[in-house]
User: What shape does this take?
Amino acid sequence: DAGVIQSPRHEVTEMGQEVTLRCKPISGHDYLFWYRQTMMRGLELLIYFNNNVPIDDSGMPEDRFSAKMPNASFSTLKIQPSEPRDSAVYFCASIDRAMNTEAFFGQGTRLTVV
Amino acid sequence: AQKITQTQPGMFVQEKEAVTLDCTYDTSDQSYGLFWYKQPSSGEMIFLIYQGSYDEQNATEGRYSLNFQKARKSANLVISASQLGDSAMYFCAMRDYTGNQFYFGTGTSLTVIP
Assistant: This one.
């Protein structure tokens, strides 16, 4: 398996624009997590899914943020409208609940909102 | 409440020396997993080592070992024979096997001095 795949790797956008981040988890994994990493706040859990169903979205900062998982192999994190304070690295990670293993992380998307 | 606490924002170690990175955790569960990740300046999250709550032996992976003290709820990472390439951020994490969430600490920045 190619691991968790995120796209794009880098995104620069203007304030007010819509941004969509994408994630393909490892095949067979039934949990998917979205994290945001900043210098000030560290690694924050935004939302996670189990079998495509959102379980906990209490970490989503505002209504401008939304996440979907239409099927087991694809998830999106959307920010609309984007603001400069959304600039961060966004990570997607997945696990197989049946395995007592680590969370497998994607390479991250570095988002810059100007 | 903070689930994972890493009290050392930054650490320095001389090349070839051993270093211990501290991690304490908070849970009332009996079954959980503890993990350490390395994040070099390139940004990816690299899994290092895992300790299950029922494991009686401390986990080891090459130069990495996890000093697990269950009664004290600590899971310190020991890196032996430090190398320049060990300079990175190190994150301690706990997996809750009930809800399958991952909780991350704020990280420790390790610098290896030649």
